[in-house]
């Protein structure tokens, strides 16, 4: 009987402990695991062109002076350049420091420079010189010549016959008059001459800054409907052309101009660069080619416009 009572006590204690454990587990507050901190997604990077070394102004960029740099895509602008090959050989508009971005505004647009009249020497190829030539619209194909066209140069000039017999004086004792026998000749002087520019140059070394596209409504000119009205040009209006010549031909043009020859320009076709052989034209040539009948006394009668 005492042993049985002891067993019941032990069982009661075990049940009490089990009940306590169950209650403790059920009533224990639950703790949630901390939420994971979201990791930022790495931003995409773009390779852009930079200067690997200092590049002087108005020079062609060599391959070893061009490098690349990775920058965040958000920092990319329309002026950044992405392809190094597209930059090599281009001319710089101004000095580019080492490590600087090579952007579109740092590249020299030679066609734009030529049109605006800046930096003439950038457009002169090796072996050529640029010579200024002043003429009139009438002698320059009525204003049809444009930048990049090719022309031929024609000249005509009077030749004095130094062996002509002097004309007798009108009265006795008067000295014999000086000879006045003149021959008019016309000649094809130079062929396939490139016109670098029509009009004067601006004379400024650096290209102009870009004009902002935004223009106030008050400053913007009113656009008229229809085709623009062409302004008449006087045939005698002066025009200055810059011609590309080799050294010797530049001297030929200088001699023709300063000797008083009459000089005209004729415009070539866009793809015509062939040279032609032309004969010197004189009165004798005209009479022979067109079979003009010679008067009874040869060379006594000449066209009225033949004498200067």
What does this molecule look like?
This protein is an alpha+beta fold and 308 residues long. Among the domains are: 45-108, Antifreeze-like/N-acetylneuraminic acid synthase C-terminal domain (Type Iii Antifreeze Protein Isoform Hplc 12); 122-160 and 179-203 and 234-306, no CATH class. The chain has helices spanning 2-27, 110-116, 247-258, 283-289; strands at residues 45-51, 66-72, 129-136, 150-160, 182-198, 238-245, 262-267. The strands form 2 sheets. The chain has a 5-stranded antiparallel beta sheet with strand order 3-6-5-4-7, covered by helices on one side. A two-stranded antiparallel ribbon has the order 1-2. The chain is rod-shaped. Mean pLDDT is 80; it is low at 204-220.
Summary keywords:
308 residues; alpha+beta; Type Iii Antifreeze Protein Isoform Hplc 12; five-stranded antiparallel sheet; two-stranded antiparallel ribbon; 4 helices; 7 strands; 17% helix; rod-shaped
């Amino acid at each position: 009987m005492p042993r049985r009572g002891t067993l019941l006590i032990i069982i009661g204690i075990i049940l009490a402990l089990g009940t306590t454990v169950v209650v403790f587990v059920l009533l224990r507050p639950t703790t949630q695991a901390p939420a994971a901190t979201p990791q930022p997604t790495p931003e995409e990077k773009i390779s852009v062109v930079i200067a690997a070394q200092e590049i002087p102004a108005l020079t062609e960029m060599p391959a070893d002076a061009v490098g690349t740099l990775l920058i965040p895509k958000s920092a990319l602008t329309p002026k950044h350049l992405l392809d190094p090959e597209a930059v090599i050989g281009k001319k710089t508009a101004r000095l580019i420091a080492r490590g600087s971005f090579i952007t579109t505004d740092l590249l020299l647009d030679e066609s734009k420079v030529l049109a605006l009249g800046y930096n003439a020497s950038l457009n002169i190829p090796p072996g050529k010189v640029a010579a200024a030539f002043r003429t009139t619209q009438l002698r320059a194909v009525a204003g049809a010549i444009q930048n990049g066209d090719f022309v031929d140069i024609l000249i005509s000039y009077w030749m004095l016959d130094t062996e002509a017999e002097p004309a007798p004086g009108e009265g006795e004792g008067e000295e014999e008059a000086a000879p006045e026998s003149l021959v008019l000749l016309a000649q094809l002087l130079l062929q396939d001459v490139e016109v670098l520019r029509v009009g004067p140059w601006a004379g400024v070394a650096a290209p102009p800054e870009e004009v902002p596209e935004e223009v106030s409504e008050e400053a913007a000119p009113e656009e008229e409907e229809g085709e623009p009205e062409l302004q008449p040009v006087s045939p005698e209006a002066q025009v200055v052309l810059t011609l590309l010549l080799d050294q010797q031909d530049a001297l030929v043009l200088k001699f023709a101009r300063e000797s008083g020859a009459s000089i005209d320009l004729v415009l070539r076709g866009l793809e015509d660069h062939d040279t032609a052989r032309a004969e010197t034209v004189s009165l004798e040539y005209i009479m022979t080619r067109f079979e003009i009948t010679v008067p009874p006394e040869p060379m006594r009668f000449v066209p009225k416009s033949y004498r200067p």
